[in-house]
Specification:
Blueprint: H1 4-9, H2 21-31, E1 42-45, H3 55-58, E2 67-69, E3 91-92, H4 96-108, E4 113-117, H5 132-141, E5 146-150, H6 156-164, E6 169-171, H7 178-183, H8 191-202, E7 207-208, E8 211-214, H9 224-233, E9 239-243, H10 260-273, E10 279-281, H11 289-300, E11 305-307, H12 313-319, E12 324-327, H13 337-341, H14 353-360
Helix pairs in contact: 4-5, 9-10, 10-11
The structure holds iron/sulfur cluster.
Length: 379
């Protein structure tokens, strides 16, 4: 059987990454099968795929999945990792009639869907109440236009109104630590409120895709495992894992970069805890070497999908015996595009893996490696 650390050494773009040998060994023991085939297929969502794309796929660009904020750049919570800055680049729709206009403009411009979000009130609720009728109107007028909503905390009435309005996917950050809720989010709500929101959402027909932000407590792990337990109690359609990106943290409350191996261990635990649920690594994670390390662990831990993978991941997956597909991902949204990518009707064209690997490995050759052409199986 291929030794997984040795396989990493063979992947040229992974020169310089430092993986935890003990963790890699454990991942190999848990997730490789006799004969070397690791845990099933892995989907890579990558804008670089566009280099190989058909003209149909090439249309999947920056404006395909715009993010729209119902509060513009305003948010009452001012969480320490964000300070509402995530909202700034989004399209504002501060009144229901603005949302109708924005949706029509986006449909006319060729958008395939949108992420609907907004700043929170002091209770971590986004006040969508006046918007539900117009969301229904948008879905009735443009049924193929997908709408994903960032729910924040919601009661059962709101969950049902989201469902009735025709929203396609509901996303929320699940936080499992009271200290994180109090200190990072400045919020007087309990862990139970997050679990109840998840419970209400999964009781509807909405496609629920919670996120866990790893390292949310100033770069350290605190409530992540509890969040995993909460999700296990209320199984969603898929789970997205992201790693905190505290670009906007105040100097007085700095975040450390989460340790890559700890992130990798969490991937292993999440895979064990939720064997039947698609686990995706979302776009948000630290750049550079940390990203290469985190992505390598994700491939080894049997995650089902990686958005915007680091160079070398397709080759690593091939070397570990994982069947891989490469699909286009739309690169503009800070959150949510991996959720949209889950849609069954996403563009079906797949890259031949070989040219991607050959490019990644700069012509190093693939002697002896089994390469699966994605289009040939499963779909
Ligand atoms: S993470 Fe959400 S709730 Fe917190 S400041 Fe940013 S937009 Fe507001």
């Amino acid at each position: 059987m291929t030794d997984w650390l040795a396989a990493v050494d063979q992947v040229e773009p992974l020169d310089g990454v430092r993986l935890d040998a003990g963790l890699v060994g454990e991942l190999q023991r848990r997730f490789s099968r006799p004969g070397g085939a690791a845990a099933g297929r892995i989907d890579f969502y990558t804008p670089t795929f566009k280099a190989y794309a058909t003209s149909e796929i090439a249309g999947c660009g920056k404006s395909a999945w715009p993010a729209v904020s119902v509060t513009g750049g305003e948010c009452k919570l001012q969480c320490d990792h964000c300070k509402a800055r995530l909202l700034e680049p989004m399209i504002p729709a501060r009144r229901p009639e603005d949302l109708w206009r924005v949706a029509n403009e986006q449909v006319a411009a060729g958008a395939r869907g949108m992420l609907l979000t907004g700043g929170s009130n002091h209770r971590d609720e986004v006040e969508y109440g006046p918007y539900y009728p117009v969301i229904r109107r948008i879905k009735d007028a443009f049924p193929a236009f997908r709408i994903a909503i960032h729910t924040a905390l919601a009661d059962l009435d709101h969950a049902r109104r989201m469902e009735d309005s025709g929203i396609d996917a509901a996303m929320m950050d699940v936080i499992g630590s009271q200290d994180t809720i109090t200190q990072v989010y400045h919020l007087r709500r309990g862990v139970d409120d997050f679990e109840r929101t998840l419970e209400y959402l999964v009781s509807t027909r909405l496609k629920v895709v919670p996120h866990i932000v790893l390292g949310l407590h100033y770069g350290r792990f605190l409530g992540e495992w509890n969040a995993l337990e909460m999700i296990r109690r209320h199984p969603p359609a898929a789970l997205v894992l992201v790693v905190v990106m505290p670009f906007y943290a105040p100097a007085a409350r700095p975040f450390v970069t989460p340790d890559s191996a700890q992130v990798g261990r969490f991937f292993m635990d999440a895979r064990q805890a939720l064997p039947g649920i698609p686990l995706l690594l979302g776009c948000a994670r630290p750049p550079g070497r940390a990203k290469a390390e985190i992505d390598s662990y994700a491939v080894m831990a049997g995650l089902n999908g990686i958005a915007h993978p680091a160079d070398g991941m397709v080759e690593l997956a091939a070397r570990l015996g994982r069947e891989a597909t490469v699909s286009p991902a739309c690169c503009s949204m800070a959150v949510g595009n991996e959720v949209m990518a889950l849609d069954a009707d996403r563009p079906q064209a797949k890259a031949e893996i070989r040219p991607v690997i050959e490019r990644e490995s700069a012509g190093a050759g693939l002697a002896g490696i089994k390469v699966v052409a994605a289009a040939s199986r499963h779909r």
